[in-house]
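Most newcomers find our protein records easier to grasp once they have seen one. Read left to right, the backbone structure tokens trace the chain's path through space. Nothing more is needed to start thinking about how sequence determines fold. An example says more than a description, so a record of this kind follows:
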Amino acid sequence: MNIKNIKSEFPIFEQKVNGKPLVYLDSANSSQKPRAVINRISNFYETEFSNVGRSVHSLAVKATNRFEESRDKVKNYLNAKHREEIIFTKGATESINLVASSFGEKFIKEGDEILTTELEHHSNYVPWHFLRQKKGAKIKFAPVNDKGEVGIDEIKNLINSKTKIIAITHISNVTGAIVPIKKIVDLANEKNIPVLVDGTQGAPHLEIDMQELGCDFYAISCHKMYGPNGLGILYAKKKWLDELPPYQGGGGMISEVLKENVTFADTPTKFEAGTMQTAEVVAFSEAIKFIEELGIKNIHNHENEIMEYGIEQLKKNNSVKIIGDPKERGSVICFTMKGIHPHDIATILDEDGVAIRAGHHCCQILHDKLGIPATARASLGVYNSRDDMDKLSDAINNCKKIFKI
């Protein structure tokens, strides 16, 4: 992969930050957008815009066709069995809330257990907390080991007859641990327990095949996959979508509305209430096309190479402590520096044009377990290179000089 050619596809890298070339290492937060995605949004608003699924005039029909073509594109990319298994949402957060609300309303009762892990992002904990408060359910947390992983045994030990759903991340956005989803799904299937996967970090970096993974629900953030903001995907097996009640009510998701009763549209429409984010859905096809043209395996291999090089460089610095050492790691490097708060690290690195994130990364439970309030995080995308890792290392050394450590 020619990294210079790839970077040229992203207009944001044409600028400088504080007089320095931009080194963007915050893709786990949100990825940058290739020109094809940006242009598609603009072109759609200029030439094709209309609301979808309502009117019969030419623009509306064309816009609806483009919208549904994107659904087919996502269905094929994920290797879903049915196009109706693809639900467009406002983001992975809404996708998980949809499942927690609809599944929880129908299948969770007092005393039932929801199994999750200490790795989880708040988006895959807080919705279940709401359900715990509403229904009197219990949440169990599979523990993280010393390497920052959650293994199959930790999950197996907590499953019992009261376990009604397993909600688990694919890749930790702190330790980078890749969770053995397939093994967990196989284990859950033996007990007829559905599995929801938070795929916000998995989908941009790994090959995602729903027939292979076998999970019941998979949540995606499109803005982390080089796509537009404000858009998410919920993959859900059709058997669940046909059975679950709607998450929200409003226009578009109904079949018939009477004073005495309301009937709902078929899946997936019954889960897509109101005016949808049409331009974003249409443009997401370009993001998938971008990933497919590069090849997700090529992206994964490239990012792994850069990550391993970056870890090697940081390990040479005795002031840096890398968080987690999982056997299988996604392209996330969290670290701390003795005597320097992560927010100060991020501020000083920004002066050198290096963009990282600092904080608890919406993973307070994990940070509490690790005994640290915050970490600095460098996370990779396809546009990163060894040179970016060298500039990160140089900026960290500059940070040491400023703090005289």
